[in-house]
Amino acid sequence: MADLEFTRGLHHLGDGCHAWLEPDGSWGWSNAGLVVGSDESLLFDTLFDVPMTRAMVEGMAEVTASAPIRTVVNSHSNGDHWFGNQLFPDARIVASSATAQEMQHAGPELIMSLRDAPGGPGRFAREIFAPFDWTDCSPLRPTETFDGRRVLDVGGVEVQLLELGPAHTAGDSVAWVPSAGVLYTGDLLFIGGTPIIWAGPLRNWVRACDTMLELDPVHVVPGHGPVTDTSGIRQVRDYLLFVEEEATKRYRAGMSPTEAMHDIALGRFGEWAESGRIAQNVMAVYLELDPSLERPDTREIFARVAALEGYRD
After folding, report:
1. Is 306 inside a domain boundary?
2. Structural domain count of the chain
3. pLDDT at residue 313 in the model
4. Is residue 58 part of a domain?
5. How far is CA 275 from CA 31, 176, 226, 290, 294, in A?
6. Looking at the domain assignment, is residue 44 inside a domain?
7. Which of 100, 195, 248, 294 holds its CA 20 to 30 A away from the CA of 72?
8. In this structure, is residue 250 part of a structural domain?
9. What gap in Å lies between CA 249 and CA 191, rounded to an integer?
10. Nearest CA among 183, 264, 165 for reference residue 223
11. Residue 3, SS3?
């Protein structure tokens, strides 16, 4: 939103709701949310490494001194939203069942292996992940899971957890605080950056956007980028529908996924950061249209994105 600066630190949204923002919102620089009740708090997502998460906890200390964090919610399985969990050994850690399942194969080892890759992909990974430190990273997995919907009482504040995935990942969840009109979306929203469809289907992500719009939130805290409102949800929805239309046209014309991702002119969406993610987004559409296609693994996807970002072998 125009009246809330995109600066690092804790931002008060009203009625016990806060956003912890991490500019510039690119790879690994994710946001978190804090809901403060009468005698306890809920943290929505931890950050990409332990030092970042520790700095966030210290930055929240004045607010949480009388209302300690007793619940941590992880929106999805990407490491920049749960690799700091180990700083909350006494809290209950909540995530969707699908997210908990994905976490078994989404630890820091995968990220570190990307940095060790040869050629362009390795250079790309080493550059974007250089600020992060996973030396002593042993993230805790969820202690509780849910499916569909769960309502939590956080010191008298109602927080609704809504599972809206699969979309970005297999089990994306949002946290909705009706009394404050605040929605924490995890990576169902990238503001100023390009979304990436790790799981799909794309249309389910569109439906997730529709669900978020129906809530009519006042403040929307995205997984990456500045705090927004419903206009930010519409922007992401528009991008997804654009990708679906453009990729489908090229599939019908007999283009390969590689040909399509190079052929699509992004127009206004090309102004968003991380535009190379179109590589995976096109592949996601092709896999929906032809499930017999071979599904590339994370390393191959990353290599394709790196190539479009100018990191070629």
Report:
1. no
2. 1
3. 76
4. yes
5. 20, 29, 18, 24, 23
6. yes
7. 195
8. no
9. 26
10. 183
11. coil
